[in-house]
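Appendix B, Record 12. Input sequence as logged:
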Amino acid sequence: MRQQRLLNPTLRDVPGDAEATSHRLMLRAGLIRQLSSGIYSYLPLGLKALQHIQTIVREEMDRAGAQEMLMPALHPAELWKASGRWDVYGPELMRLEDRNGREFALGATHEEVITTLVKDEIHSYKKLPVTLYQIQTKYRDERRPRFGLLRGREFLMKDAYSFDRSASGLDASYQAMFNAYVNIFTRCGLQFRAVEADSGAIGGTDTHEFMALADVGEDTIVHCPSCQYAANLEKANGVIANESTSSTNVPHAQPTKVHTPGVTSIKQLSQFLTTKPQQIIKSVAVQADGAPVIVLIRGDLEINEIKLKQVLSVDEITMLSEAEIKALGSIAGFIGPVGLSTVKLLADTSIRGLNNAVVGANEADYHLQHVDVQRDLGALTYVDVRNVGQGESCIHCGHELAFAKGIEVGHVFKLGTKYSESLGASFSDENGISEPMIMGCYGIGVSRVLAAVIEQHQDERGIIWPNAIAPYSIHLLTVQVKDEAQMTLSEEIYHTLTSAGYSVLWDDREERPGVKFNDADLLGFPLRLTVGKKTSERIIECKERRQGDVYELNVEQLLTHCQSLFN
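Logged structural output:
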């Protein structure tokens, strides 16, 4: 491709709301342009990179035995209602009506559609197992689209669905997809970790997220540097050590009421009583599917709502109002477990064995000191409902856990029979007995992978593409396009390389050399070839974008060098 004809509008400055490095670079390098909030057009270079990622995805999915197909993006509401997700999925589901008033949704995911299709087409165990996938645009009405392609309202996704006759069959399908994902992200040049995760609105049991490590990531990864344990913060577990010390403990002292006027936060209480937040028991009043619950947790920790929902087996958690707290016999800001017998108490494991603790006194402007959990609170139900905190240990090997930020680029789920039972997807076994199909679901954010790669592969000058997904492998620069000898040699090199199968962008623009060199660094293709002052000697300058190595080659050496570099 000759660059003078390429639609590649590079920018010196980018909009101030482009926070993520990948977003800024994709705008500057002319890969994408915004149409509306969270909605982007892919310009030629951006589309080429996206297509290379899709090729890798297809190759690995096909190698794993999956079959590609394509499903509609417009879904009848009755499918989502049959699965129970029309009301559960939330406002992110884009809903609309046709001219006859019939309800539809734009596909955010395709469990309902694929399950209905397979239900109608597969009826015998002889046709199982089967894994089907597609690469298609998805739609989600994000409340706050941000970071360019990392969180948009329209995005490209690969979603696959496996159908098996047994749990062991699902295990095999799941492992095949897991391995395919490892290959895909490795080939794309990503640094990533597969972490235990929550299944969210998709549902199911076992699930892993594939997280590309990046500071801009909105997910927190908890991992063990010593063993292979890794989990999303929503799912992570750790071993906590209570920080009560013998110098501050008074295990035989009875609870004592202390006046704490206007002191309602953990920070205020810690300062007022000169005590550590670790010695304070926070009482959090919530309503779980309409039923009040008081959750007890150490003052320096936070409740993990997803864990709490799972423990209570509820769909919705909301905070109690001041009036609702008063109806329980307490008061907002001073809630405590001592003497509060009208409501269910749930204790995080962080308070187990704690003594000399501070709790609310259920009376305005008062707290209780010297509370011994075992003595004063009786038999409590202990559960893990907290976010793992700094200093906690690995549940497997005891090593201190570490924290990192990550971008979710893939997610694999064991769905079981959640959708097959609700939508009637069953098969007849060898004895003619009807059984529900056992499903798995496997997604990759293809456009998000593109942004994640750029987040990890860039420097102050621009993008540094991995070879496998670079829009072009080679950037050929002619320093002086009015110099006939330079243009003749450039033409020869261009045809030699393209005939050998290499993708080449030839910068034949009438621009200053400095502009061309800066644009080449910004676009970041793996190898830059410069035809300039040594044209008469048939010598060109080579620069490898990643290592920054600069050296000269005779044109006759070029093909051999490219074979070595790219193969």
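The chain has 15 helices and 31 strands.
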